[in-house]
Design goal:
This protein is mainly α. The protein folds into 2 domains: 48 residues, Arc Repressor Mutant, subunit A (Orthogonal Bundle), CATH 1.10.10.60; 145 residues, Orthogonal Bundle (Tetracycline Repressor, domain 2), CATH 1.10.357. It contains 10 helices and no strands. The chain is globular. The chain starts with a helix and ends with a helix.
Length: 202
């Protein structure tokens, strides 16, 4: 690895740590340059801006994030119920450590959805995944075939993602501090799979 590549990777790793701790808005360019032991010119040489650096860091984090999720979707051995539990725990756990991911995902989906989905899934169709087939089969067995499986998936995503996006509002409504909000989120790891199963007639 060349000196330039080493410098670029160091900047990215330092920035990843700071972004995860402070978020995009709370991170100053000076925070990154000081922690990395570089000047602003070096950061601009490699990334041109804080926004470009954030985007590269988040795309890598998001790719890793979704590969773990897809592994659960593709698992031939686990049941639908096990997948729902694993998905909820995995999603919530990762978002707690990378709270900017939901905002980044929705921003990218709004402006660059096709490229983002292709990068995440490798072009694989949702209906070909084991999870989707199991979901359709469960709806059929429970005589709930009128329900589009995408409705269930939309509800699952909403239940997981929305509380993180609405965190300030939920904290205000519930008069909650950080620890109380965290406790609320932890309880959802058990509740969300139960709610989804109720929707499909279990």
């Amino acid at each position: 690895m060349s000196k330039n590549q080493t410098s670029k990777e160091k900047i990215k790793e330092v920035a990843r740590t700071i972004f995860m701790k402070k978020g995009y808005a709370g991170t100053k360019t000076r925070d990154i340059t000081t922690a990395a032991g570089i000047n602003l010119a070096a950061l601009n040489y490699h990334y041109q801006s804080k926004e470009n650096l954030f985007k590269e860091v988040m795309m890598e984090s998001m790719s890793s994030f979704f590969q773990q999720i897809l592994a659960i979707f593709r698992n031939e051995e686990s049941t639908l119920e096990e997948k729902l539990e694993q998905l909820t725990v995995e999603y919530i756990g990762r978002i707690k450590t990378q709270p900017d991911i939901p905002f980044f995902i929705f921003s990218e989906l709004r402006f660059n959805s096709r490229a983002l989905i292709t990068q995440i899934t490798g072009g694989e169709k949702l209906e070909n995944l084991v999870f989707f087939r199991q979901l359709k089969e469960q709806l059929k067995n429970k005589k709930r075939e009128e329900i589009d499986p995408l409705q269930i998936i939309a509800n699952l995503m909403s239940m997981i993602f929305f509380p993180f996006i609405a965190k300030p509002m939920l904290q205000a409504f519930g008069d909650m501090n950080e620890q109380q909000f965290d406790e609320l989120i932890e309880k959802r790891k058990k509740l969300i799979p139960q709610w989804i199963y109720q929707m499909i007639g279990e």
